[in-house]
Amino acid sequence: MLTLSEISFQKTPPTLLVGVDFGLPHFDGDLQELGLLAESGGLKPVARLTCKRKAPDPALFVGSGKADEIKALALLHGAVEVLFDQALSPAQQRNLERHIGLPVNDRTLLILEIFGQRARSHEGKLQVELARQQYLSTRLVRRWSHLERQSGGIGMRGGPGETQIELDRRMINDSIKRIKERLVKVKKQRNTQRRQRERRDTFNISLVGYTNAGKSTLFNALVKARAYAADQLFATLDTTTRQLYLGEAGRSVSLSDTVGFIRDLPHGLVESFQATLQEATEADLLLHVVDASNPDFPEQMTEVQKVLTEIGAEHVPQLLVFNKLDALPPQLYPLQLQDQYELDGVPVPRVFLSAQSGKGLDLLRSALSDIVKKALPPTISEAADPRDLTREYPGDLP
């Protein structure tokens, strides 16, 4: 069966979206996010189908009756592939393709494809390739199911299909090993750069948040950079770091824009992006950017907190930035643009702003300046009298 890459000869392949509700609170009944992911990956959703189950069917994930319905709906709308909102096991994926007669892919592969399209830096490409290879290593049975698998003959342990699987598994494992070795070197380079910033007594801030919350737009607005920003999921993947001067604090800080998070982010991606996400782990402050205009923002914030915990960054102090103020309807407009919000039962400072229009950016700069001044000792330029900095050493003064 074809993969997303192999059917890319069609500019926007018609795709049927399928979601299964297992009673989890975050289920997207309209498959809105999956549709945005599909469009970001170059697919064209032509129909959507949802169903309810208590547990996944071991063989077909949705059961044979629903699989027949999926096949009929795909034929009706001319879909050339089926995309599931949940992760499928290799056996379920193989059985569904045989039953439906079309390529069947899942959310995990789609996110990997998008990351593969968007990665620009050498490090980003290595990280995506590692995640892809780890994903493919579990799909070898599906990829070689057309070859003979039954053993037979005197002295034979298996057919040519099993031999090919072993060869492919060895090639993929060797590739994974090489990529990991190269990523270790990249991580050492990042650590060297990080130690240099620490010696310069730099305050490090990382932008984190759900994908499409407006992190890159805010990054550009704060540091006057030209990082790519678009109204789509995972517009940017590679970490970009710039210096941000805070006039009220009288010093510059280091500001990094990181990859956006998403619900059910493939675990392999979290593992492979450890070098990039380490910027968030070792930051002095996290600017948690939230799309205030999205009615599901509480669930999105919960997903961000999950990933932060997974990478070991849950201890880093946060400043919440509720972005897209200009997109809020009048009845939801905040009474004040600066307050506190309870995050995991702890009050966290919050600023409302619009990175697009610039409204509220002055409040954010002021809040950052206050945090930095409390965290770092004053510079000579901040002191009214240079003697103030040496008052505890009277012997050094004339």
Describe the structure.
Helix 5 packs antiparallel against helix 7. This protein has 12 helices and 11 strands. The chain is globular. It has a 7-stranded mixed sheet, with helices on both faces. The chain is α/β, with parallel strands linked by helices and 398 residues long. The longest helix is centred in the middle third of the chain and has 40 residues.
Outline:
With 398 residues, this protein is of the alpha/beta class. The chain has helices at residues 32-40, 64-77, 90-100, 107-118, 122-136, 140-143, 160-199, 215-223, 267-272, 274-281, 297-310, 361-375; strands spanning 14-21, 44-52, 81-84, 104-106, 204-209, 240-246, 251-257, 285-291, 318-323, 338-343, 346-352.
Uncertain segments of ≥5 residues (pLDDT<50)?
1-9, 142-157, 380-398
Mean pLDDT over all positions: 81
User: Measured on Cα atoms, how large is the radius of gyration?
Assistant: 25 Å
Q: In this structure, how is the largest beta sheet organized?
A: 7 strands, mixed
Q: What gap, in angstroms, lies between the N and C termini?
A: 84 Å
- Give the number of helices: 12
Per DSSP, what share of the residues sits in E-state strands of 2 or more residues? 15-25%
- Helix fraction, binned, reads 25-40%
User: How many strands appear in the DSSP assignment?
Assistant: 11
Identify the overall geometry. globular
Briefly note the structural class of the backbone: alpha/beta
Which sequence of SSEs, written as H and E, runs from N to C? EHEHEHEHHHHEHEEHHEHEEEH
